[in-house]
Amino acid sequence: MGVRVRYAPSPTGALHLGGARTALFNYAFAKKHGGTFVMRFEDTDQARHTEDGIASQCDGLRWLGISWDESVDTPDAPYGPYRQMERLPLYAEAIAQCIASGHAYYCYCTEEERAREREAQEARGCMPKYAGPCRDASQEDIQKWQSAQRKPVVRWRVPQDKTFDMHDLIRGTVQWHSADIGDWVIARADGVPTYNFAVVVDDIAMRISHVIRGEEHISNTPRQLMVYEALHATPPQFAHLPLILNDQRKKMSKRDASIVQFIDQYRALGYTPEALINILALLGWAPDTDQELFSLDAFVSSFSIDRIHKNGAVFDPAKLDWMNNHYMRTLPLDVTTERIAPLVAHLVRIGDADEGTTLPVVRTRAWLRACVDLHVEPMRCGAELAQWMRPLLPGVVQMSDDAREAIREGRDVIGACAEALRHVHTWQASDIAQALKNINTSKKGKQLFVPIRAAVTGTIHGRDLARTIALIGRETVLERLHAAHTAHEFSMKHTDQ
Ligand code: GLU
User: Fold this and answer.
1) What is the Å distance from ligand 1's center to 362 Cα?
2) The CATH classification of domain 87-241, taken from the options 3.30.428.10, 3.40.50.620, 3.40.50.1860, 3.40.50.2000
């Protein structure tokens, strides 16, 4: 059996950076070794499960360009179902087998009894772990609890005085002693297995060769090793990926609203899947060169587990911005335009050009392409264009204070510019640039261009002026220049702003 790896999210919400990184590394490992990438949904924790959790995981990965060979949408795949709640009979069988072999037992303790036990242990300064009567209960006790209608959970009988070794491909050998692990619950009273049990049953049944997952699962591994042993199965190779840290080098918390952490949020902001793949690739893995830019294919061919490091991997949003800018600039302009179009759809609708004043205005695709082309250089994410595009559309421009000041000081230039542009009829950036050069004024450089920009866009900074003017359109530009040149508000200093 060749390489078979899996990404096994609990569908409790949208696809997170951490989940996407785990999926990417598993995908890369499978692709690199001609193996199979399985996606299994661990939905046994029904309280945390969200209805669209599965769909949003699938959509997010698909958008990133990560595909899988076996999952809920591959009906002919051989090891299904790929959703744990549809695999309950398999777990029931394994639970029965473990009870029969003495590796597990029914526990009838009530929640209150357990809570009392935990409190007492904590009061003694001991680690809380199951020390109740059910591990070695007599037949008589069991009958008593059963006739009291107690619904049992199933607990693992943790062997005494035993060590468990995990040979991790990233961290080497990690060892645990059974004395530190209490008898843990493998199935709740309703028969639904807990994560540590179900994951092993599935990884065995699905012939998983390598378990590549987040570091937070290291502490689960000894429990899982016990189950492999009891079920007479060889454990897979483990590789635990380093934690993802925030810029303060603290474990990134899903609840930290100051960092955008979900793939669909990045998508809505106009980040490219290429940039996300690239930043995820470097979260814990590094090539042996100083190459920083990796396409998905390049990552797959360079990937190897021995270049994954143990130390936490810092997620740097500024680096993501830099990468995203790189991809937006270097992808074909049509591709970048297509991707940005939905983000500005509330402002611009593609159709036959027409200067409407209500949003969304109608503009040609060529207009949008030129607009993206003009702004892409400083753009960190596509959503920025929505903000930058506003002054290019008909309607009243929002004037900054600087712009008002520039207009007040450059009214003569604005008048001369209006005059020059009135004679431009083709309204191409090159003709406009020529006309701007020929403005009849002695002013030069900033004194010339800043008042004009202020008058037509309401700001004193921006992209190439002639191209900006071309995009705004002749009628609107002439109107704005006229308004700035003649409006009373710019003829004197306002004190009430
Ligand atoms: N369902 C687990 C999670 O979402 C996966 C654990 C594993 O990969 O073993 O974290």
Assistant:
1) 48
2) 3.40.50.620
